Amino acid sequence: MGDHQPLPRGPEPGPAALACAELPPLVQVAECELLRRRTAAVARGEAVLLHLGEGVAPAAAAGEDALGERFETLVQLAGVMAYVTALPVVRIGWTIGQGAGVRSGREAYDSSARVLGLVRAAAAGRLPDRRRIRDRMHAFVTGSERGAAHRDRAAEICRGLAFLGACGVEPDRLAGGEFFVGHECALPEYEAALTRSGGADRHAYATSGHLMWLGEGAGGVGGPLVEHLARIRNPVAVGLGPATEPDQVLGLLDRLDPRREPGRLTFVVRAGAGRIRDLLPVWVEKATAEGAAVCWVSDPVRGNVGRTTSGRPGRRFDRVLAEAEAFVEVHRALGTHPGGVFLDTAGQSVTGAAADGAAPPDGLLSGDQSLDLVFTLAEAYRRRARSDAPLPRNDAAAANGTVNPTPSRARRAERSRSHSGNPRSA
Considering the entire predicted model, what is its pTM? Predict the structure, then answer.
């Protein structure tokens, strides 16, 4: 039995928070613990993570058909990654109850419950068939020069699906199984109200989502939201951008992952195509030297805001691709595992969206752009697997019968006192 973890003590709850505390949990404790095991596998290099986002528009604003399209996109993109990388894919769709779009805990709860209901219905009733997958692949590879570059690999996947069908395994098996949701923490009272204890050791878990995101306005490592996240067992995601200093990475590790548990922390890299080769090696080496087994995830969309070739504001898709490939190449050079990708995607084909290398006007990738990016990223994984790169450092240490050194508690405590600044995320 592990140490008993009391429920986090947040701010004194007001009437609205007390009302939320009486509501059922949005997700189950067992599901959160399952995601902990899955992210641990990603951190060890045994799986990859695929997280879909929705840009500036909360998922709750989407209709049933749009959410169904996004679920199909999640299944298809995960299938491509699994086929090309030969690794299990941890699927995280949507970020429910987004802080930027809600003003109260009850509003966050209601919007989250609606999205979860629609997504679960899509998972149960909107299952892809081989013909629809094949038709979508065909439209992708024949619709643009970029798509044509992936023709051979797409044909391989379609032949693989045909083989599965001949063996009696239909694609609905791909849609079934596990999927998880993220949640950006923004309202301390709401987070405290939806915290429950569970599991054999009665640990505290957030039930507002499976993967907890530390929002950009959360304050320093001593802020109330960080304090809350430090006391729950859910896996936690934090964005790292050009303004993130190495010492801030260390401060986050010490506060949110003091035991250095694999998969506890996911660092989402938003460095930009022009900075990633300079910034990512420093962050990875700092974390590795601390004995941390972090999930490293690329978010190549949000870090590449600029002007398109036509002069319109947007995200240059060529730079999005460049950052994703650089992410894998840096990890290959360091001997560490590129854990996965976060994509803001519309979940459907947007006609003409990629004509000048731009994402759609709202900043979401179209369905075709998402497929292009995942094919490109997966091919980079395959090249990495064929290379003579060394074992990931944690694996190499295990093979030698050693473990990475973990700083003493006294050293961590001393350093945490010095980290009073804001761990900025992009």
Answer: 0.83
